[in-house]
Amino acid sequence: MNEKTDQRLRLTLRQLEVFAALARTGSTRAAADRVSRSQSAASTALAALETALEAQLFDRVGRRLLLNEQGRALLPLTISLLDQAGELQSLFSREHVTPLRMASSFTIGEYLLPEVIGRWKQANPQVAARLVIGNTSEVIAAVAGFEVDIGFIEGRQRHPDVVVRPWLSDELVIFAAPGHALAGRALGMAELAAAGWVLREPGSGTREATDRWLFERLHPMRIELELGSSEAVKRVVAAGVGIGCLSRKAVAEALAGGWLVELKTRLPRAARALSIVVHRERRPGRAAEAFIKTCLAESAGAPTMASPPQARSRPRVRREKR
Q1: Rg (CA), the chain
Q2: Pairwise CA distance, residues 31 & 9, whole Å
Q3: d(C-alpha 319, C-alpha 21), whole Å
């Protein structure tokens, strides 16, 4: 019995941890730093893993290690196994807890998730959470690269390694400062096309939706500024520079406060879906499953808080450096 078990388990979690770090960093030095081991120990762990599996997992290109086909097949299983090992380790200890890692596009991350996370944390104060905010393409890349557990996006972008699930509905709004020359009256297509526009940057979900809605109807548009955050767009437009287009959720407070006004147009309504993204080959951990359940309950209008595994920490929300 013991002999069969020893023959079957020829690899270790430490080897798999080093492999996952190498897959993310591409170098033994960076991987060693990531798992708090020496560079020689990381190299030894990789060699032992490849020997145990009787397979080469990386192509060596100069000093870089690039995942080959066999490595790509192993990576999703490795990440899931390490996640489960982390959950197992935290069952009886409040130390070494792996936080729930999330990435979100700007509109969702700045205007929707903070409130959801706040309510979730009230019901689950023992669970750590981290949120990184970027544009839609960055969020999909983070989910596909196993850098986060859950992603939230605004755009229609797809990736073969991720599953996109519709979550909430949203719509785009065209707005201006109250004193703008176009405010307070119905606008035709020619006036909109001739106006100066302040838009989000290419690559963001909001910009992708804006292009689909406006470009075919108003082309050519006169774009004066492209900015990397919704707050910047609102502030510039409020200062009287051009007109803007953002999510209604992003401008709701500004419209209610009167420092921006919605422009009246003859354009059709620009509805869009906000979505949850997970990796196709990765089994979500209990914390991720619980948070997704909470989000879906929010969208159904019946908030219920699911309880994930035991851990104690406070949420950390950071803005990705642009």
Answers
A1: 24
A2: 24
A3: 23
Quick: pLDDT tens for 96-154: 456 789 999 989 999 999 999 988 888 778 888 999 999 888 999 999 988 899 999 98
How many angstroms separate the first and last alpha carbons of the chain? Answer: 56
For 212, other C-beta atoms within 10 Å of its C-beta total 14
Task: Select from 166, 147, 177 the least CA-distant residue to 240.
Answer: 177
Q: Which residue has the tokens 């080897």?
A: 15
CATH class of the region 99-322: alpha beta
| Report field, pTM of the whole predicted structure over 0.90 | no
Cis status, amide bond into 220, omega within 30 of 0: yes
Q: Rounded distance, CA 127 to CA 316, Å?
A: 11
Tokens describing residue 299: 């969208």
For 2-90, CATH number?
1.10.10.10
